[in-house]
Amino acid sequence: MKVHLEADYTGSTVFSPTYRPDGKLLSVTLQLHFHQSSANVSIPQELMLPQLDEKQRLNLLQKKLQVAEKISSFLSENKIYVIIAVDDWTAKTIVNSEFLQHRLAAIKTLELEISEQFSGINQGIENDILKCLYHINPMSLANYGAGKANSKAVYDSLFKRITLDKSFLHQQIGKISFNPFFNAIVKNVRPYCQQLVVQGVDSAAMMQIIRQFDIDGVAGTLFPVVSEAGLPDLLPAPAVLVADPG
Length: 246
Known about the structure:
TIM Barrel; alpha/beta; 10 strands; 24% strand; globular
């Protein structure tokens, strides 16, 4: 996919993995990274999106769905979910488009992910857009604990999966009080979702600490980001998860 702003950018699809603590691949997050054609510059999608017009943003969403459709057999065979992040504009576009809703429904392994920055999240199920999304497709919450929203949407059980904020983890994990504090968070959140994931596990030492808790998934820079062709390479359990945590 090529996007023209003040310069031409070419988008490439990449996948970030999330693993179960036992090493099984749980999900992959689908993202587009943009590369400037005339220079060695790479821009992540979260920085590119605000610069796009509505037609470009719709094309970007269609591209992601096309990729998700293409890999759906691989995902189903291996019981892996693919996660696509949606912002306010994308959510409203999906809610107002039966065509997009049919495409989403056909991808059985798809989850839509919102963040704490999503407008109206503090209303929980009382927010019309969130309520519609909840009935359209399974949803995930990213960066929970970032301090940008209250927990009403969590307590309304809107999310199949909740991912804890990596900055929150990095700030707290070195403190003496971390273990009881984190355990309290896990016990408080777990009843309201099917899967609890910890983002930002970036070292073997952090992994050893996090694996003590009742969580369903871990993600971080310990695990490689791959292209579509590299998806099968994510299936073997990473060495850091095979090792004895004790």
